Amino acid sequence: MTTATATRAEYCVIACAEAWRGDGEVLASPMGLVPSLGARLAKRTFSPDLLLTDGEALLVGLDGTVEGWLPYRRHLAMVTGGRRHVMMGASQIDRFGNQNISCIGPWEQPSRQLLGVRGAPVNTLNNPVSYWVPRHSRRVFVERVDMVSGVGHDRAAAAGPAATRYHRLPRVVSDLGVFDFAGPGRSMRLASVHPGVTVEQVREATGFVLATDGEVPYTREPTGEELRLIREVIDPKGLRDREVRG
């Protein structure tokens, strides 16, 4: 498989799918189109034990067919028991993984109201949380978030063992690359760039100093079977290309 074969959107689907590798029987809770495609790809290939949700109250099969009901109480039990891996969006995210989906500007008088804190604090302190950012820019990857919705490594550490016990941020995926928190002090590190993207491009689009370790690799290539599944089974209408530009 050559890098010219896959599109940028397909690399993003692959990178999102990898977030659930090795998770076993957990609830994959993707928020957004590309994470949803990634979760379905992971279940069809290397993570067959994943449970898929429609994002609300139902468990669904690979084709979206309803397989069960997931009432809110049971959903919360899975969250607090660590049996869920959610991939959320981020209006802002900083070097330690603090995420903001609540407001832009000072809390006392914000310039823009967003979704609100929602379940981000409970998610980040109780089960694995990854992030998907379809438009990587300095407006999203910021030095300091305007408000903490999802808890990052520095704030979890400051809160003590009760906050760090189940706190885990496996990865951040953007339209430019893949990131983890293996940098100094558990700060964000550039783990891979998507083919066609340079390390310098990622640094230019990031509002803080991004850690790197030596030569940054490319995001892994999809297999021929994975590409077939994405194009013919999971997303035959090509909706992925509307969310991620080539």
Protein model, in words:
With 246 residues, this protein is α/β, with parallel strands linked by helices. The protein has one domain (8-243): Glutaconate Coenzyme A-transferase (3-Layer(aba) Sandwich), CATH 3.40.1080. Helix content is 29%, strand content 18%. The protein is built from nine helices and 13 strands. It has helices spanning 8-18, 33-44, 72-80, 120-126, 153-159, 161-164, 199-204, 224-234, 240-243; strands at 27-30, 51-53, 58-60, 66-69, 84-88, 92-93, 99-100, 103-104, 112-113, 129-133, 172-174, 177-180, 189-193. The strands form three sheets. The chain has a nine-stranded mixed β-sheet with strand order 4-3-2-1-5-10-11-12-13, with helices on one face. Strands 6-7 form a two-stranded antiparallel ribbon. Strands 8-9 form a two-stranded antiparallel ribbon. Helix 2 (33-44) links the parallel strand 1 (27-30) and strand 2 (51-53). The two termini are 18 Å apart. 43% of the residues are buried. The model has no long low-confidence stretch (mean pLDDT 91). Keywords: Transferase. Belongs to the 3-oxoacid CoA-transferase subunit B family. One of its GO terms (molecular function) is CoA-transferase activity.
Task: Spell out the helices and strands N to C.
Answer: HEHEEEHEEEEEHEHHEEEHHH
Q: In total, how many domains does the architecture comprise?
A: 1
- What structural class should be given to the helix and strand makeup? alpha/beta
**Largest beta sheet: strand ordering:** 4-3-2-1-5-10-11-12-13
User: Which overall shape is indicated by the principal axes computed on the Cα atoms?
Assistant: globular
Kindly report the average pLDDT value: 91
DSSP strand content = 15-25%
| Number of H/I helices | 9
Number of strands: 13
Uncertain residue ranges: none
User: CATH H level: which superfamily?
Assistant: Glutaconate Coenzyme A-transferase
CATH architecture title: 3-Layer(aba) Sandwich
Helix content: 25-40%
Give the termini separation: 18 Å
The main sheet comes to: 9 strands, mixed
Radius of gyration: 17 Å
CATH class: Alpha Beta
CATH topology: Glutaconate Coenzyme A-transferase
Family: Belongs to the 3-oxoacid CoA-transferase subunit B family.
Protein name: CoA-transferase
InterPro entries: CoA_trans_fam_I (IPR004165), NagB/RpiA_transferase-like (IPR037171)
Keywords: Transferase
